[in-house]
Amino acid sequence: MQRTVFAHPKVVITHRVLIACILILSPLVVGFFFDILEQIDIIAIRKLTTREENGTTLLDAVVTIRNKSGKTIKLQQGEFAFAVLDVNGQDIPLGRASLEEIVLNAPASAENLDDSEVSFTMNLGTPDRVQRLYDSLISSAQLNLLEPTSTLSLHFSAHFRLAIQAGQAWNYSNWIDLEWTIAPEVERTTLFGFLQAISQGKFHAPFQNQTTTQQQP
To answer: Which one, of 78, 80, 59, lies nearest residue 124 by Cα?
Structure first.
């Protein structure tokens, strides 16, 4: 959903994982907040589980976010959208999530980064929509089902306010709209479990025998 935030000039910034970041701020403040944003990485997907509620399928996801900015920051009143990229770089939409606040603590040091586990709940839709999602993922997504741990190409967009701690005070941005193309790590068993859950019994994980343990005599 597009949003119009005041009638001030827009500054567009690009970065290796930041496709577009539109900040309605003065140029000096734009640079300050951009320096913070480029130090935030989504490095891993830890959990993908589904559940049924009121005739729709909900996806509970846990991701690991790394804050390398040296400051404690908050993302407030966030609206997020997630999509898997297919082999042609086109979106396969997963769902949307809203979070009132995400707190990313300042790392203790450059050698001891403080990763944060953040939970999202997305509505995947009706059973028919979930079936179409499964068919799209299996036929066209860049899914590496061979390695124990691989990366998953995702398109991630967000709308939020950013707060940065400065001593006992907080500096607040206006609304920020950004898009990331990211490739977080995901364990094969996590990806298998998600595909199995939305496949209505059609997905059978290869190499299941490699994950079993032998019984000792």
So the answer is: 59
